[in-house]
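This follows on from our talk about sequence and fold. I would like you to pick a protein and set down its sequence and fold. Go ahead and set the record down below:
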Amino acid sequence: MLAATTTSSDNNALLGVLGLVYLIAIFVIQGLPLFFVYKKAGANGAPAWSAYIPFWQWWTFLKVIGRPTWFFWLLIGLFILGFPTLGIAWIALFVLFVILMNDLSKSFGKDAAFTVGLIFLNWIFLAILAWGKATYRGPAAASGSVAPAPMSPPPPPPMAP
């Protein structure tokens, strides 16, 4: 009977270690394109390697898209409330996630379709922002919207003979 208990706890320990390795791998994989997104955006004063520091990653992300600092504390509060409740807090976090992804999309001059991509295929669309031709146009949430890229001036009128 003791051997069965020991084997069961060994299996649980192995699953725990594998789960931790999986979470670390996901964090690193997610951090890679985010690092280059921060580098492109200049991260508004924060270093790009903050993409690999838990919680500071969120703080820097909110600075890049132009959200106020109280948004960070709102996210932390909802995240903590979400563990025991599994209800409204998680729904609120998802709604905020959609808003934040829309702000990121607008900060790089992308449209609503790109926002949908960021929501459902996050790593792929972050990689498109990181290594694609998208340019950072400034924090979208700070001003409410990002102005379109400036147009070239019209040609001068023809000279009269």
Summary: The helical segments are 2-41, 56-65, 69-85, 88-107, 112-120, 122-131, 140-143. The chain has a mean pLDDT of 80. The chain has one domain: 2-138. Residues 44 and 75 are 20 Å apart (CA to CA).
